[in-house]
Amino acid sequence: MKYIIFTLISCLFLSFSVSAQTTGISGTITDSENNQPLTGVNLLIKGSLVGTITDNKGNFNLTTTIPLPFTLVVSTIGYIKQEVTISSTAQVIKINLEPQTTFIQEVVIAASRVEENIMRSPVSIEKMDVRAVRATPSLTFYDGLQNMKSIDMVTSGLNYKSINTRGFAGLGNSRFLQLVDGVDNQTPGLNFAVGNLFGLSDLDAESVELIPGAASALYGPIAFNGVLVMRSKDPFQYQGLSVMGKVGVNHVNDPYTSAAPLYDFAIRYAKALNNRLAVKINGSYLTGLDWFATNYTDVDSKTPVAQRGENNPGKNSLNLYGDEISTTISGIGQVSRTGYEERFLTDYNIKSLKLNGALHYRVSNNVEAIYQYNFGLGTTNHTSSSRFSVNNFTLQQHRAELKGSQFFIRGYATIENSHDSYNARTLGQQINKTWVRDLDGNIVAPENANATWFQRYEAAFKGNISGVGANNHTLARSFADQGRYLPGSAEFEREKNRLSHIYGGATGAGVFSNSKLYHVEGQYDLSRQFKVVDVQIGGNYRMFDMFTDGTLFADKDKKITINEYGTFVQVSKELLNQKLKLTASGRYDKNQNFKGRLTPRASAVFSPTPTHNFRASYQTGFRNPTPVDQYMNLFAGAITILGGVPSNSQGTPAYTNSFTSSSVGAFAGAFRGEVATGVNPQQAILNNKDKLQKSDVAYIKPEQIESYEIGYRGMIGNKLTIDANYYYSNYRDFILNQVVIAPQSAVLANDGSINPQAAADLLGGKSHAYQLYTNANDRVSSQGATLGVSYYLPKGFVVTSNGTWADFLLKDANPNNIPAFNTPAYKTNVGVSNASLTRNLGFSLMWRWQDAFDWVAPFNELQPGRIQAYHLLDAQVSYKVPSIKSIVKLGASNLTNQYIVQAYGAPAVGGIYYVSLTFDELLR
């Protein structure tokens, strides 16, 4: 990072000494249909970074040292790009731009990392431009991404949503890469993509491009399931002051609370001080009451399904925390602690503050230097293995970049601080340890609380407590709960605040991470040098610098860093009079803990005419284990969670001297069965010890994918656009967790048989459980298809529809070794819009439907939970007030207010109704 900053500063100083003869040109740009002047049109000298924009009368002035003649590239959103040759300063420049009614001229960058027409993209790609950002009926542009085909979006909180494509979805998805201005939008230590919690505001969002499926060949290991590339507005092109105020309401008809207001405010100011220097500042703030997770279904895995429910004394309700703690009491059966509802444990008053500033300096005609600083502060709720209250979490980013017409070099640093974040499930369990009384009425120490509570329950149920009826679970629970801190009480709030700030799951619920990520990358376009073929090369270096102070990793007394690098080359060639484009790329990546990986990609695009384009591609990808997968070292009482690199388990018997958990269960069950019939315990051990199996868990390694895709993108009759594709993917080496039990004695005797003493250790409490990160050898496949059509009707009406089909092929794999697919088989979007229903009035409607499916995740101990099919309607109507450069927008997300759940254990999401007022590009 310091070398990049030094280079940028050096270039800035050198630029002051550059002098050359200047040329000045001026002109006017208008709409070809009504001859009205166009404001904010971007003019760029081709092959350089020199340019300007038109003022509010459509006029422009440009001064440059580039000698005549040169070509001006003229572009703006909603109009077809033009190129105009300028040969003289005396030339009268008057340009009429033709409105763009379809996407046939749309340009994308993400598919090949170079600018190309979307019609000839070698892989499937979706794009949301600034017009779509403004017109989305969803609360924010990020929410509106769910209207793209291929995308699966899951709500974990009002201001936190998770994105995935093509299956194997999860919350905080680490298989999907999200970039904002080229910067990875993930937390370095906790390893979840922050999505809409931080990142771009609606005022600064210029475009979004989505590549579904494997993209590792160009973007590295995180782009295993796809990549989302978000770009902010350039201060040279988008100038002036923009202000937005949005007021809304949610929780309408919510049985758990009354309707609640939400507020979203944003401001953006950008100014080009001259042709070389521009500045930009942004600020936005969203606050409201988060959605409630209130599913109290009994999901206790130790109770047969038919016996679960309200009358189950061992009940484990999904969104109650603390009732996971249970035991089997002789003569009674399984009994669980009384839990606390999530809505009393977490912080539902969410917020999201985003601040950033950028300085852009054009060092020369072909080189621009950028420094940007981002700061985010947020409170939200995140679903993972537990429900986490991400409380006052901060994320800082420094970005320095030097870019030209053929290259860029970029470096950035990301710094996280979890501050007041905590695990809501652990918090419920820890509060339950603070108030338990013994039979004499004295509060016991936390380490004795659970055992004492069960003793009270047993005594009451068996009739040993005066005044408490025997054989009554309700009365026994009530007696055991005497002194329980009630939600909302001063004692409850005191313990909630205290325990949420104690880090580490053994004694508290706090989550601590102050980890950092450093990343440097560059790319160069060698096409001018090779001429006969287009060639791009690039590479990157990345370092994770972990610090959790021993709460998540074993980094209390040692430093944990992870280094990795990658490099790629891409070659493309047009043949058959530019009707056939062939592209091949290859990337090599190396992480310090794993073998190097080569990920090739090859594609062909055949375009018999400009409006009909057929594509085929072969893509590969891989995913390195996250830092958590590699170095997690969390002691959680009865179990220790260990990451899967060899150095992380040194000094433990987890990989070298342990039994499989399934064989321990079989052994224990058989042992108890024989003892119950009168067999001597020592003999029962000898009779059943061979049911135990020594574990053989491999150290962790990357996941791998290969994918085949065919597609078509075209236009018929200048009215109907079609984009269709089919893909087939093979996966292997999925990362998963495996539990082993390690006895104190050696697992094997000298002769290689099961050691009876090790078996006895399991029964005598002389063992410990480990949850290990490893891989499955099983191979599975998935396939799917998407179809998107748009029809352009007269007078500006547009009808759009898309559908996605996804299918999981288990083949011969063990389902216990495969991550959950967590994706509906079918989903669709249908929309109608008109940006100019009248001169100033526009609207859009979007109806969305998805099929039912089973969601499987660690939150529910990998048990399937049903996600019901649902359909939603989003709508907005907007009115422009040109005299004050403003737009009034009235909208609703989930207009019919259906409370739906998108992931099992996540909150029920209802409607949001809002009105916004936006002033755009004032003070230009």
From TrEMBL:
InterPro entries: Beta-barrel_TonB, Beta-barrel_TonB_sf, CarboxyPept-like_regulatory, Plug_dom, Plug_dom_sf, TonB-dep_rcpt-like. Residues 426-895 form the TonB-dependent receptor-like beta-barrel domain. Keywords: Cell outer membrane, Membrane, Receptor, Signal, TonB box, Transmembrane, Transmembrane beta strand, Transport. It is a multi-pass membrane protein. The keyword Transmembrane applies. Residues 1-20 form the signal peptide. It is found in: Cell outer membrane. Residues 119-227 form the TonB-dependent receptor plug domain. The keyword Oxidoreductase does not apply. Gene3D superfamilies: Carboxypeptidase-like, regulatory domain (2.60.40.1120), TonB-dependent receptor, beta-barrel domain (2.40.170.20), TonB-dependent receptor, plug domain (2.170.130.10). PANTHER family: HEMOGLOBIN AND HEMOGLOBIN-HAPTOGLOBIN-BINDING PROTEIN 1-RELATED, TONB-DEPENDENT OUTER MEMBRANE RECEPTOR. Belongs to the TonB-dependent receptor family. This is TonB-dependent receptor. It comes from Rhodocytophaga aerolata.
